[in-house]
Amino acid sequence: MQLVQQGKLRLDEDVREKLPELTKAGILRGFDDQKEYGKQAILEKIEKPITARQLLTHTVGLSYDLGHTLLERWAKEVGKKGDTNSMTVEGWTTPLLFAPGEGWVYGTGLDWAGVLLERVLGNGETLGQYMRKNVFEPLGMETSTLNPAAEPLEKLENKMKDKLVPVALRDAETGELSLSELPIPAAWQPTAESGGAGLFTTAEDYGKVLAAVLRASSNEGEEGLGLKKETVDQMFSAQLNKKGLEMVKEMGRAFHAGIMPEFPVGFEAVDHGLGGLLNLEDVEGKRRKGSMMWHGYCNSHWWIDRETGIGACLLVEQFPFADPGVIQLYNDLERAVYGELVPEWKKAKNA
Questions:
Q1: Could you tell me if 270 and 280 are in contact, meaning their C-beta atoms sit under 8 angstroms apart?
Q2: Alpha helices in 79-200 (DSSP H)
Q3: Which of 14, 71, 99, 246 is deepest in the core (most CB within 10 A)?
Q4: Domain locations in the chain as residue ranges
């Protein structure tokens, strides 16, 4: 959004020329099982523009391939090296599942947004280097990086390695926790720096980002990120068309604990902004309408409530995804925060 504000990138310009890998991959429409020879994948040419807006809202048609039957079959058929968690551009290169803008599916859109940023800049600067100069350093985020191995040795040894948190794995039968390794190891030295899943950070550092977005929401502006209020207003505006909205809601119905566990079951007043999911109505005892949120693979969560000025994150390293214990903690945390900081919620809590 910094590039958009600076006029270096337009949200709705066609970026297919800058991302030829996706144009070449096409749209996967299924498989021709009657075909006896050659590849059976049915691939359709991408005729519609691919835009930055689609990448930021997961409406471009890109999905993660882990556990996705069609994409895994396609990858095997073409001999693809590396999956979408491999921290490589080749790994992120998959066919779309629908034409750009014609649905919603969570996937590698933010990774490709990072690739797009690098190619728009065109100066050899990586996403991580850009983030350091334009986000981490201005906000005083001393323990954040997209590429730990590229950091100065002193910073790596003294400020990062000793802060690494091991992953806890919950036993499905006993409920007990034990230390484990991630099924998908974090990339200490990624081939491509990931905008969707590559951040090494701390709660203190991440909180600085949330606070900066809240400051930028005021008319006074914000010096760290340099975002104007109208830019942030755009980020927090509903972006989905009817088809995309229905696909988000469908995902919420099928996997509530994984998509929107902070909302009551059946809550469907949602949309997607430029960077996260929005609730379009107040959640009783919790965040106000227009708030943005998302979460991570190891059960970390964040939200930004511009109406009350509250932003918070819960960072954990626990697996599997959508752990009920973490979800309970997250909901308890949010209710406690609003119970203390929001007068009307506090009054209702004590009534």
A1: yes
A2: 89-92, 109-121, 127-131, 137-139, 153-155
A3: 71
A4: 2-121, 202-350
User: Rounded to two decimals, what is the model's pTM?
Assistant: 0.94
The listed CATH number (2.102.10.10, 3.30.70.20, 3.20.20.370, 3.40.710.10) that belongs to domain 202-350: 3.40.710.10
Number of Cβ within 10 Å of residue 61's Cβ equals 26
For 264-310, the pLDDT digits (tens) are 999 999 999 999 999 999 999 999 999 999 999 999 999 999 999 99
- 83, 66 contact by CB (below 8 A): yes
Express each pLDDT in 32-90 by its tens digit: 988 877 689 999 999 999 999 999 999 999 999 988 999 999 999 999 989 999 999 99
Pair of tokens at residue 275: 């960077």
Is beta strand 291-295 parallel, antiparallel or unpaired with respect to 277-279?
A: antiparallel
Q: Phi-psi bin for 214: left (phi > 0), alpha (psi -120 to 50), beta? A: alpha
Token pair, residue 181, equals 């390794």
Q: Evaluate whether 60 touches 96 at the Cβ level (below 8 Å).
A: yes
Say how many CA atoms lie within 13 Å of 79 toward its Cβ.
1
CA 103/CA 242 separation, integer angstroms: 8
